[in-house]
Amino acid sequence: MPTTAKSLSKNKSFKAKTLRGSKGKTKASALKRNSRSLKIKSKSTYKNKKIAKKRSFASYFPLFVLFVASLVILSATVMYKNYLQGFASASSISAFSLQDTDIFSAAVVYVDSMPQLGKDYTPDVISAVIYIYDTNNMSINVFNIDNDLEIDMPGRLGDDTLEKIYALSLMITNGDTAESDHYIKHSLSRLIGFPIDRLVVASDEDRSDVESLLLRGAEISPLLIKDINLYVNEVSTDLTKQEILYIAREANKSQGNISEIDLTSDLSQSSDSLIQEITFGSEISVEGKTVAVLNGTTTVGAANDVARAIENMGGRVITVGNADRQHDTTTLLIDDPDSAAARGIYRFFDISDIRLKDNPGDIIDAEVNRADIVFIVGVDMLDQL
């Protein structure tokens, strides 16, 4: 091959290599520029993402707070409803909770010290207070009773002072505290002629705490629920936690409409008119069911005590007389098991024989047809009168 041709060939090869090298350098330079650009974009994107995250968090923070607040409110509502639920209402006449009636009562007996296991000591009663709650008028009527007031004790025990009622109740019931509390409730019921629905026995030292819940009321809050848990452990009561919370709520509504009466021996004889003023306009009164009270025993006046209690509840007693024959068991004849009057009567008296007037059994028509509700006092009730 001629020299010139070789030179040209080498020159072409050199140029091709140079061109390839130049293109490589150009590509490398472009890659560097692209890499820098990507780094700058990456940094810019990272900053933008951080700003976006901050903005996103800032925009969602109020929603987060609202969500947490909703959970707290929901939890408190569920807790509150659980505490208020109490007993389920039923069509049975025997089903009763404080929420089922517009007027209910609770009595508190304050003692010098609470009874303790293993200690042979019977507390003396310092005083008693009866609260009657009127949920329609949002009012509380308070009856204060001193321990020297004489009470006609059930079971033909005669009169004795309130101070000794706790000791007497334990003696009669052979130390059965549940039966003892029932005896105290019945004794106080007879005193004012109105059913005592619930009872609290507390040390006189705890008077302020008891009044804070049952009289002054309190705002509904988890703290109040905690107080109720402590309260139940410190006193003796047949109130459920739900009922304590319910009373606290009703007491809170009734502030500014509280009447206090000091029940003396003179006033206890005329307390019926005071009670009837409270129950005027109650569900039982408005319902207007007529009631006949018949004495099915040989004890004179047995039907009068029953009639007094029914009238004080707001019941409309149209006749008080004698049954056609003697009845060993007290019987209540009703025309409607959902009647407010029928439920009220059951609250006051321990009646095991309750019949619908459509199916009176061995009760004769002359007695069945006396009124809408017929109360026949049996021999088994004499210990209560």
UniProtKB/TrEMBL annotation:
Chain intervals with Basic residues compositional bias: 12-26
Entry-linked Pfam families: LytR_C
Entry keywords, A to Z: Membrane, Transmembrane, Transmembrane helix
Polar residues compositional bias, start-end: 1-11
Region (Disordered): 1-33
Transmembrane feature ranges: 57-80
Coiled coil stretches, renumbered: none
Stretches assigned to the LytR/CpsA/Psr regulator C-terminal domain: 290-362
Entry protein name: LytR C-terminal domain-containing protein
Species the sequence originates in: candidate division WWE3 bacterium
